[in-house]
């Protein structure tokens, strides 16, 4: 008799129980694709075929603007908190930026449900790989893994359920902290692009306004404190011109989610108090000079 315990998930799969103990790829996503593909993000419900009018008619919440900036100490990623359905605000405090492991984080724009599941599955995949292999996946490996997951969502994306991630990471093997921060963007087909030339990037409906602000304000040689403020201010500028992007809401105390990744601290979600203080400074300046 096999001495290993059989948990509820294993027992529930009946004939597939052996798959849980069979050697194979260290990728958790590959395992789910082989044993329960209907659980992957972007898969349509049973009876809803790709190309059906039923799929395209769904009105679901969408998340918008995410910004990422490289600085002298690492990299910062930030996202606003608004989700919309057409011209309606669906949620004011949605979170679209997540820490995925000790040295990486991901934000997403697009269909909120698919984006959230995509990022959560990515985080589980990174943890699973590290447990199986005994070492974390390399920074390029993480970006390539995420690119493959985006590509798997292409069928849903063709129906309008697009969710695009923005990946940031820090390479602890890089001796120069100023070069260790990385930003990687993706298109709907899963093609990746390293955003190293400008040192910043943004995605979502407010991205054009955020990037315009960062083009004038951002400096890759800036310290972390300055970069945090630039990220919050870029989201403020995006919200100023894009109705789908939510700015800092002092009344409800809803502020952007901001994550910094440095060699000294790793990936850290900045506290609400810290971001509230930065937002208050930005609002005070804009009260005197609305254009920034």
Automatic annotation (TrEMBL):
GO terms for cellular component: cytoplasm; proteasome core complex, beta-subunit complex. GO terms for molecular function: threonine-type endopeptidase activity. It is an enzyme of class 3 (hydrolase). Residues 261-288 form a coiled coil. It is found in: Cytoplasm. Its EC number is 3.4.25.1. Keywords: Autocatalytic cleavage, Coiled coil, Cytoplasm, Hydrolase, Protease, Proteasome, Threonine protease, Zymogen. Pathway: Protein degradation; proteasomal Pup-dependent pathway. Pfam families: Proteasome. It comes from the Bacteria. The active site is at 64 (nucleophile). The formation of the proteasomal ATPase ARC-20S proteasome complex, likely via the docking of the C-termini of ARC into the intersubunit pockets in the alpha-rings, may trigger opening of the gate for substrate entry. Interconversion between the open-gate and close-gate conformations leads to a dynamic regulation of the 20S proteasome proteolysis activity. It catalyses: Cleavage of peptide bonds with very broad specificity. Residues 1-63 form a propeptide. The keyword Cytoplasm applies. HAMAP family: Proteasome_B_B. Belongs to the peptidase T1B family. The 20S proteasome core is composed of 14 alpha and 14 beta subunits that assemble into four stacked heptameric rings, resulting in a barrel-shaped structure. The two inner rings, each composed of seven catalytic beta subunits, are sandwiched by two outer rings, each composed of seven alpha subunits. The catalytic chamber with the active sites is on the inside of the barrel. Has a gated structure, the ends of the cylinder being occluded by the N-termini of the alpha-subunits. Is capped by the proteasome-associated ATPase, ARC. NCBIfam families: 20S_bact_beta. Component of the proteasome core, a large protease complex with broad specificity involved in protein degradation. This is Proteasome subunit beta. It comes from Pseudonocardia asaccharolytica DSM 44247 = NBRC 16224. The gene is psmB.
